[in-house]
């Protein structure tokens, strides 16, 4: 190739690269209108959630709900006559990106409060950073038992999986008489937390367990499932981080012509699409969810508002309610004690019978809400309360 | 002991995928003599091409598959002509070529992620998956296709290499590039065609995986690494070696986790590689 040709090729490649970057950036901004910085009179609220990867299936609706709540608050006059502004970062449902997101929100955007992480791995990684910088970290979805009392600056309105594990173990052993459970656990903090809580209670009741773990990036579960199947368990606990991951395992369970009784982690029953797709396999599956109350006026308002703005039914309603409440609780905190991370964290421990879409919310000294999980099951492709 | 037939079946199918990757990788290695990382990209391209054609454009499956294989092969052909050829002419070292191929791999992966998002996509819901059963072993139609195609490709490549003029030229080229040039073989053209074939096979693996589990932009590296392990274990440059090495790897992995926890699967694969490198670096079949 002579010199002129080299130059031409070089310029073309450079142009392509620049175009690619601009297109990617444009896409990111189109999905992120809240990122337009409004100068001056706003309270900046950091948000970290998974916007890419498997967990985006619950991350994207979360962002919609936060924005919905903020728009409502700003339309009604804002907070102390200042508007709330969301600054959103993608924490990709893992610790490393969670830490990066928190670091960026705190050092670059200088927020005093962050709504996030969503996945437990994000929250666990971000908490030390929030604490060191005296920023309040408020999670509407992280449920790992390890977050209970982890830091004065972390609090949540979603209960710990100590509750989920205990409820599942109790129902499985006592009500369903499943004495031997096989466990397919994804290697994430959230899934591990549920496994530990379940296993402890299940073993203390007298049950036995067989454990297999898999990485989030794994796609071939056949030999592990074969191994578990050969142990003839009474039930299989599908402990996954995301519905997408559960779907991959369910497909291979189906391919192996295995129809075990199933126990699932709480991200699966509210995912109507996956439940519908595998409804035969999931018939009678046991789960534990934070309940929703259709008679709660704030909750039904959220459902209507989401439907009219986004043209779909509120997805993942169990998280939707806590996410919606989270924004309003931040507003209440700022109005009560001002825009200061330390004061907001202090305020959180005083929350008692705060009326939200989830009902009356009380947060204890350890940062956990008093709410608990209740058992559900899947019948005819739908999530219903557990009944014997 | 009823678990054994199922484990055998699982091993055969894992081995088939590794075999296809390994054979195509070793074929290209034999001709070009460097570790070509971009080989993993063809898997991604093949998988996403068929995804695009079937999901987005709703083309009939068989046409989409054939077109995707040609696209993957074509990209390989073009990349060889535009990137590898100049590097060969400049007599670059193998390290330079390896780094260039790694760069290409990353660029292609990023490009695919921009175009299709990094979400895991699956095609397995678009076709009726028949499930077969032999004794206590169960497998799907896609897996059967994997196994059959591995065998077909193996015999195809062996026949090509042994009985056609092109194949003999490839053998000559793998033996000694300089002498092949002296004898009058147009080595650059042969290498391009080898790239086309290798990339096409790699693209076919992507299509199979798309129908078996699913695709994401980062899938190329995993498939490639297992293919490389199989190729090294079997003997670099030897296609029968790659075939055997792949099935050895498949069996070692799937029987290995029978007694050990499943998360050690990759550890077993790389452990096998290290053992072979320590005790029999030339691989099962010496080339």
What's this entry about, in short?
The complex is a heterodimer of chains A (388) and B (287). Helix content of chain A is 47%, strand content 18%.
What does this structure look like?
The complex is a heterodimer of chains A (388) and B (287). Chain A contains 13 helices and 14 strands. By secondary structure, chain A is an alpha/beta fold. In chain A, α2 (56-75) packs across α12 and α3 (95-107) runs parallel beside α4. Chain A is globular, with a radius of gyration of 22 Å. In chain A, 52% of the residues are buried. In chain A, β1, α2 and β2 (83-90) form a beta-alpha-beta unit. Chain B is an all-alpha fold. Helices cover 76% and strands 3% of the residues of chain B. Chain B contains eleven helices and two strands, in the order ααααββααααααα. In chain B, α1 runs antiparallel to α8, α2 (39-56) packs parallel to α4 and α5 packs across α6 (165-175). The radius of gyration of chain B is 19 Å and the shape is globular. The interface between A and B is large, with 35 and 36 residues.
Offer a few descriptive terms.
heterodimer, A: 388 residues, Rossmann fold, 13 helices, B: mainly alpha, two-stranded antiparallel ribbon, 11 helices
Write the CATH architecture name of the largest domain in chain A.
Answer: 3-Layer(aba) Sandwich
CATH topology of the largest domain in chain A: Rossmann fold
Distance between the termini of chain A: 77 Å
Low-pLDDT ranges of chain A: 29-39
Q: What's the main sheet of chain B like?
A: 2 strands, antiparallel
Task: Give the largest interface.
Answer: A-B, 35 and 36 residues
Mean residue pLDDT of chain A: 89
The chain-level structural class of chain A is alpha/beta
Rounded to the nearest angstrom, the radius of gyration of chain B is 19 Å
Portion of residues in beta strands of chain B equals: under 5%
CATH class of the largest domain in chain A: Alpha Beta
> Strand pairing plus helix content of chain B: what structural class?
mainly alpha
Strand order of the largest sheet of chain A: 2-1-3-4-5
Tally of discrete structural domains of chain A: 2
> Rg of chain A from C-alpha positions?
22 Å
**Tally of individual helices of chain A:** 13
Output mean pLDDT of chain B: 88
Instruction: Tell me, briefly, the overall form of chain B.
Output: globular
């Amino acid at each position: 190739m002579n010199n002129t040709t080299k130059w031409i090729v070089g310029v073309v490649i450079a142009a392509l690269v620049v175009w690619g970057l601009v297109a990617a950036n444009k896409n990111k901004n189109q999905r992120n209108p809240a990122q337009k910085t409004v100068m001056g009179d706003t309270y900046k609220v950091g948000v970290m959630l998974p916007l890419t990867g498997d967990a985006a299936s619950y991350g994207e609706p979360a962002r919609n709900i936060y924005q919905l709540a903020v728009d409502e608050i700003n339309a009604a006059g804002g907070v102390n006559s200042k508007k709330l502004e969301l600054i959103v970062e993608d924490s990709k449902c893992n610790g490393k990106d969670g830490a990066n997101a928190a670091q960026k929100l705190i050092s670059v955007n200088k927020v005093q409060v962050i709504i996030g992480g969503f996945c437990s791995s994000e929250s666990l990684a971000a908490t030390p950073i929030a604490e060191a910088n005296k920023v309040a970290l408020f999670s509407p979805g992280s449920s790992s038992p390890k977050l209970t009392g982890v830091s004065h600056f972390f609090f949540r309105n979603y209960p710990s999986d100590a509750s989920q594990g205990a409820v599942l173990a109790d129902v499985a052993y006592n009500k369903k008489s499943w004495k031997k459970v096989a466990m397919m656990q994804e290697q994430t903090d959230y899934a591990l937390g549920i496994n530990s809580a379940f296993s402890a209670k299940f073993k203390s009741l007298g049950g036995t367990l067989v454990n297999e773990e898999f990485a989030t990036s794994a796609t071939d579960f056949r030999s592990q499932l074969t191994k578990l199947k050969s142990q003839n368990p009474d039930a299989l606990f599908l402990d996954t981080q995301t519905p997408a991951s559960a779907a991959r395992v369910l497909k291979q369970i189906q391919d192996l012509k295995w129809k075990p009784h199933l126990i699932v982690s709480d991200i699966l029953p509210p995912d109507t699409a996956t439940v519908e797709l595998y409804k035969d396999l999931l018939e009678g599956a046991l789960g534990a969810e934070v309940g929703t109350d259709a008679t709660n006026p704030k909750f039904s308002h959220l459902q209507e508002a989401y439907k009219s703005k986004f043209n779909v039914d509120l997805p993942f309603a169990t998280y939707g309610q806590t996410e919606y409440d989270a924004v309003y609780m931040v507003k209440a905190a700022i109005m009560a004690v001002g825009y200061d991370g330390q004061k907001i964290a202090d305020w959180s421990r005083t929350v008692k019978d705060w009326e939200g879409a989830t009902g009356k919310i009380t947060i204890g000294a350890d940062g956990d809400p008093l709410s608990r999980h209740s058992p559900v099951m899947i019948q005819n492709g739908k999530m219903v309360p557990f009944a014997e | 002991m009823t678990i054994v037939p199922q484990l055998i079946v699982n091993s055969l199918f894992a081995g088939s995928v590794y075999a296809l990757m390994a054979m195509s990788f070793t074929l290209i290695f034999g001709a070009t003599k460097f570790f070509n990382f971009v080989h993993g990209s063809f898997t991604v391209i093949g998988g996403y091409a068929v995804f695009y054609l079937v999901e987005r454009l709703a083309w009939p499956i068989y046409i989409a598959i054939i077109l995707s294989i040609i696209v993957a092969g074509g990209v390989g052909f073009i990349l060889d002509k535009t990137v590898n050829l100049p590097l060969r002419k400049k007599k670059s070292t193998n390290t330079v070529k390896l780094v260039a191929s790694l760069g290409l791999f990353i660029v292609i992966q990023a490009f695919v992620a921009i175009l299709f998002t990094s979400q895991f996509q699956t095609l397995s819901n678009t076709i009726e998956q028949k499930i077969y059963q032999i004794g206590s072993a169960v497998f799907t139609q896609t897996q059967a296709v994997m196994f059959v195609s591995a065998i077909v490709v193996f015999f195809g490549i062996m026949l090509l290499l042994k009985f056609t003029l092109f194949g003999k030229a490839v053998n000559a080229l793998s033996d000694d590039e300089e002498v092949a040039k002296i004898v009058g073989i147009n080595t650059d053209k042969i290498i391009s065609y080898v790239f086309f074939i290798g990339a096409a096979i790699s693209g076919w693996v992507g299509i199979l995986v798309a129908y078996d589990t699913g695709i994401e932009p980062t899938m190329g590296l995993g498939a490639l690494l297992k293919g490389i392990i199989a190729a090294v274990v079997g003997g670099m440059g030897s296609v029968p070696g790659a075939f055997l090495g792949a099935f050895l790897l498949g069996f070692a992995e799937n029987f290995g986790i029978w007694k050990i926890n499943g998360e050690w699967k990759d550890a077993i694969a790389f452990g096998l590689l290290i053992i072979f490198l320590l005790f029999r670096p030339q691989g099962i079949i010496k080339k």
